[in-house]
Amino acid sequence: MSVLNEFTDKFLRSAQEAHTYRTMRHICTPEASHVEIANESQNTARKVLLLASNSYLDLCNEPELKQAAAEAVLKWGTGSGGARLTTGNKTPHEELEKELANFKGTEAAITFGTGYMANVGTISALCGKNDIIFSDELNHASIIDGIRLSKARCYVYKHNDMADLQRAINDAKMEQAKKSSDIDEHAEPAHSLIVTDAVFSMDGDLANLPELQKIAHANDCLLMIDEAHSTGVLGKTGRGLAEHFNDMGIPCDHADVTLGTLSKSVGCEGGFVVGSRQLIEFLKNKARSFIFTTAMSPAMAQAAYNNLKFIEQHPERVQSLQENVKFFCKALVKAGLVPAGSQLAETQSSAIVPIVIGDEAAALTASANLQERGILIPAIRYPTVAKGQARLRASIMATHTQEELLHAATCIAEVLTTNH
């Protein structure tokens, strides 16, 4: 056995034994509230209710938006041909960034190939080895990788625990004071960054933006929020976490750096950062994942622009999603299940509803049984979540009917009761 086969085989066998081995389903229809899963051995396909999509507003398969995207391809072609700073910068990129800034209420915006690239590039541009980052323990992998790439000193604080964040800041200040005599007097002054998801992708709970802003201001820290799962979901018009809290009568502004993705509620591809004009100019000149990569195709940028305008013009789609989330959570509670996290049916805000099972094998079995009943909810396991915290992660869409959601909640309760 070759060296390559030896160490990869060992890894794969270990994953199979721990029930963390991953395989892919072959979905042979467009992303929508219902999809078909191919059974290639039997040359058949089965239609299922999709309760696992990040396309929360169900825009991927919206007829008028697909038509507009097709027209964009005919006009702009299939690729950009270069990086944004060479020949890749086309009119749709410029228009999309203006619309993103308008949608989020900021001065400017910059787009990246993916949300992952936006996080990695932005964090490593903002911070270096002399800087300090405070990171929520449940932040997304792209944030963690951005921190690693930056080489900054990282303090991880307990999930959504503002007291522990302040403790971490205090510890960092004490440590910096001890080292102050060793710091090169010609080195650039160190700065600190607090970074967090807005909606945590595996738990569905929200970052405490008002308190984070208070702590950041009091301790002279920058604040960065990743709105991947909140754009198009939170706030009465889907503008995200700041709008959500303002709607609740809790005044707050955007973070210093607000990041997001176009691949979830917007139903396209790409990532973005919005903020001050100076921040955006800084990232154009410093973020390596922006500078050294080919631009997204102009047709995709045009499609994202169209989809974003659709959200802006149809706030009722956002409100339908929010109503469906509350209905589904109440249905789970009525069926005898309590969604994971601190949010109960009456206060659930995000479209992510996790049902923690614990054991990885049991989660796989539950997911398979639900698929047999015509409901697709994947089992989320280690390392995506901690060991022993395997779960079903339901994602709600604006176009799910209440009848479908009630049926799904009933089936989930029945399957979990039977498994136990």
Name some characteristics of this structure.
seven-stranded mixed β-sheet; 43% helix; alpha/beta; 14 helices; 420 residues
Summarize model confidence as the mean pLDDT: 93
- Could you tell me the radius of gyration in angstroms? 22 Å
Instruction: Tell how many strands the DSSP assignment holds.
Output: 13
| Helix run count | 14
Span from first to last CA? 42 Å
Overall structural class, as computed from helix and strand content, comes to: alpha/beta
Shape: globular
List the secondary-structure elements in sequence, H or E. HEEHHEHEHEHEHEHEEHHHHEHEEEH
Main beta-sheet strand count, sense and barrel state: 7 strands, mixed
Please state how the strands of the largest beta sheet are arranged side by side.
Answer: 3-9-8-7-6-4-5
Helix content: 40-55%
User: Percent of residues in beta strands?
Assistant: 15-25%
Low-confidence stretches: none
Q: Care to describe what's here?
A:
There is one protein chain. The protein is globular, with a radius of gyration of 22 Å. α13 packs across α14. The mean pLDDT is 93. It starts with a helix and ends with a helix. The chain is of the alpha/beta class and 420 residues long. The strands form three sheets. A seven-stranded mixed beta sheet has the order 3-9-8-7-6-4-5, with helices on both faces. Strands 1-2-11 form a three-stranded mixed beta sheet, covered by helices on one side. A three-stranded antiparallel beta sheet has the order 10-13-12. The longest helix has 20 residues. The chain contains 14 helices and 13 strands.
